[in-house]
Amino acid sequence: MNGVMTATRSRTDTFTDARLAAVMPEVGADFYAMAGAGLITLATAQSWAEELTFILKHRGAQHFQVQLHCSGRATIALDYRVRSDGTVHECATGGGIDYFSLPAGTRAGLFVTIDDNAPHAATVRVYTAQRGWGTNGQAVAGDPMRDRAYSKDGYGVVRGKVGVWP
């Protein structure tokens, strides 16, 4: 034996427009629940769903958060991790969070980590700039406690909670 070794590696990519279209209504339901509780407007919920759909369709992000800024408390977040490697098979429905239990005056904001290595990153950057997005945001730090996942045929989004929730 001469010590020569070979190895192969394969990667599954489960992204399709149809799978994204199946997952986004559940993510959108989270946004609409926030609107129902008065944390954001209905127009903001619609805008977030539309903008995220564009970003994810162009494969421009692997991570996003809805950050909840509660007066007198540390910021908490719903942390979403996009998975297109075939590992997400759980398919829950949106919701499951009592936004009415948050302190009065709580504000919500959307933070998206744009993947600058994505093939269409420039398209996503132009789109978000046209939509008035800032570039100085920061993720809420912490290990997300897995809450639920939304998926279709191995493509999905895993939602977790970051911070101390009421």
Give the tags.
single chain, alpha+beta, Cell Cycle, Spindle Assembly Checkpoint Protein, Chain A, 166 residues
What's the overall average pLDDT, rounded?
92
The H-level CATH homologous superfamily, spelled out, is HORMA domain
Please give the alpha-carbon distance between the first and last residues.
63 Å
Number of domains: 1
Q: How large is the count of helical segments?
A: 3
CATH fold label? Cell Cycle, Spindle Assembly Checkpoint Protein, Chain A
What is the CATH-assigned architecture?
2-Layer Sandwich
Low-confidence stretches: none
Helix content: 25-40%
Structural class of the helix and strand makeup?
A: alpha+beta
CATH class category label: Alpha Beta
Number of strands: 5
Which strand order do you get reading across the main beta sheet?
3-1-2-5-4
From the spread of the alpha carbons, the general shape counts as: globular
Rg over CA atoms, rounded to whole Å, is: 18 Å
Q: What would your notes on this structure say?
A:
By secondary structure, this protein is an alpha+beta fold. The protein has a single domain (17-162), classed as HORMA domain (Cell Cycle, Spindle Assembly Checkpoint Protein, Chain A, 2-Layer Sandwich). Helix content is 28%, strand content 28%. The chain is built from three helices and five strands; from the N terminus they run ααβββαββ. Helix 1 runs antiparallel to helix 2 (42-57). The longest helix has 20 residues, at 17-36. The protein is globular, with a radius of gyration of 18 Å. The relative contact order is 0.24. The mean pLDDT is 92.
